[in-house]
Amino acid sequence: MGNSCRCFRETNSIEQESIIGTNKQYQIEQQYNKINILQNEQSRIINIQSQIRGYLARKKVNQLKIKRYNEKVNEQLATYSSTILNFNQIKIEPFNYGFDDQNDPNSHLKEFRGQTELENNAVYFGEWIQNVRTGKGILTWQDGSKYEGYFKNNKANGRGRLVHANGEIYEGQWENDKAQGYGVYTHLDGAKYEGQWINDLQDGFGIEKWPDKSVYEGMYKEGKKNGKGKFTWVDGSVYEGDFQNNNIEGAGKYKWSDGKYYEGLWVDNKRHGEGIFEWPDGRKYVGQFYKDQKHGNGTLSFNDGRKYVGEWQFDKQHGKGAFYMSSGHMKEGVWENGKRIGDLYKNSNKENIIN
């Protein structure tokens, strides 16, 4: 009796078979649901991929249309430019527009027009959006000046080139009719500036070169050399240091082509303040300067060990000083205009007296 009863065992077997059957049915349903989910997800992915392919295809077609349109506009501008840009018998190549506006979202709104006379008697040839100069174009003035480049809201914006009536050229970035960003200005005599601009003035780092091969590279502020810079002259002389309002001013080093060297303070292109001056023959002055001359207190040393330590005035020993011989012997004295006029002693009260 008990659990060992055959009837009980048969009942348990039937219940177990029923549970197993139910579990299998549940598993089948779960697998079927997963298959449905995967199929739906796959269909959704295929649909998204199809939409993306369609979008990319349409985008490619639109970009191709815009490129062809831009190529045609660039060709028309180049042809027009070649007929009007000629200064002093010097041929200037048409401006290279490139495809800066290839991704312009307003490309479909642009309209290319031929020569259009403006209120100020200037003539514009190029793109418009409605009646606003926007896009690529060429603007010529009555004095002969010509701008080729990009426009926005009737003003030069983006890359462009302005050729002045006298033949001088600025090519670079523009913002609201003013040079802004990186640009190159070429003067009629061949002098050239390459660098940063703000509000139509050199501002930031730039390099300026002159026809005689002199070169400045450094900082500018509001159109003038200001800040750290390096100036190299055609004879090989080099200054490196501070500039202010186009002048050497502040702390800097100057090396002359003949070997002389100065390091120290400057005011208005002159050695002024504390500094060190060295000669090729070994002489060395350490002390104060005034308008390019030794003035104040300073020490002049010779390569054989001699030296003068004392006062200076207008590039000459003047006042109290001490002269040291190569042997180490020292004699104090008083100098006037570079000549020693007497010895300097101290009396019993330790006051200086001249003999």
TrEMBL record:
EC number: 2.1.1.43
A single GO molecular function term of this UniProt record: methyltransferase activity
Keywords of this entry: Methyltransferase, Repeat, Transferase
Protein name: IQ calmodulin-binding motif family protein, putative
Alphabetized InterPro entries for the sequence: IQ_motif_EF-hand-BS, MORN
Top EC class, one word: transferase
GO biological process terms held by the UniProt record: methylation
Pfam families from the UniProt entry: IQ, MORN
Organism: Ichthyophthirius multifiliis (White spot disease agent)
